[in-house]
Write a structure and sequence with these properties.
Elements: H1 13-25, E1 38-43, H2 49-60, E2 64-69, E3 77-78, E4 91-92, H3 93-103, E5 106-110, H4 118-123, H5 125-133, E6 138-140, H6 148-161, E7 168-173, H7 183-194, E8 198-202, H8 211-214, E9 218-219, H9 223-227, E10 232-236, H10 258-261, E11 268-270, H11 283-286, H12 293-312
Parallel strand pairs: 1-2, 1-5, 3-4, 5-6, 7-8, 7-10, 8-9, 10-11
Helix pairs in contact: 1-12, 2-12, 3-5, 6-7, 6-12
The protein binds phosphoric acid mono(formamide)ester (CP).
Length: 314
Amino acid sequence: MKNFFSVKDVENINDLLSKALKVKANPLANQNLGKNKTLGLIFYNSSLRTRISSQKAAYNLGMDVIVLNIGNDGWQLESKDGVVMDQGAAEHIKEAAAVISEYVDVIGIRCFAGLEDRKLDYSEEVLQNFIKYATVPIINLESSTLHPLQSLADLVTIESNKKKVRPKVVLTWAPHPRALPQAVANSFVEWMKEADVDLVITHPKGYDLAPQFVNGVTVEHNQKKAFEKADFIYAKNWSSYTEYGKILSTDQSWTVNQDKMSVTNSAKFMHCLPVRRNVVVSDEVIDSENSIVVEQAGNRVVSIQTVLQEFLKK
Ligand code: CP
């Protein structure tokens, strides 16, 4: 694995999952692997879980960590080629990526979608330019269209909680007052298609994910029907892909509640967090014993530590 941008960088998802389960069982097994190595974390956007879990994972491996918040303590970076840089950006990614590579051994980057220009967001300009110009491995900490570390943590969570070989996993759209990217949903679908699960997506009309992700997956527009006999319910809001970045519905009847959970196979409730209570999911569901959102967030340490190990072992 040269970089960790998407599931396509993973040679064998089952091998990676086995390694992740070993990390979960014994997180301090490789305390010297990262000795004298440094992880650089670059954030264009806010974070709680990604920021802290990445640092914790690096410390578990004996690495040092440097964090740079673009826009607050770093120069604004230009990502387009050939532009006259007479506007806000003081530095080009070409120099920045190469220079940061002089200081650190692995770079993690978070840069969300702008949700205004679909073509631009789906070109993944920032992450792809870092991959192009850095000389060390790049880890995607959530880009415009993907959140693979979340998906690997989700896979570990499902594997640790499943009661049958091939569980039914339902990804359900849920309402939200703000327009959110499709990254978590895209990535979850991409990873679950590779995993041994029966995946169903449910969302209101107009919320179809990009065809390259959803192709071949069952989509059921009746949410309660989709929930029937499900073993895992994964709730997430995303804005429209077709009417790009728009909120087409805030229909509260899509909130995950106990009535809908009652038709499942006593399903575990999952969400990547942060979550808006009583908008995305009712208190009753997220506070129930079937909610595994905290364990899921805990597995974010496992997912990045597993990926870091892959790079450090080279
Ligand atoms: N799930 C997730 O990536 O959380 P943060 O945005 O807080 O990092």
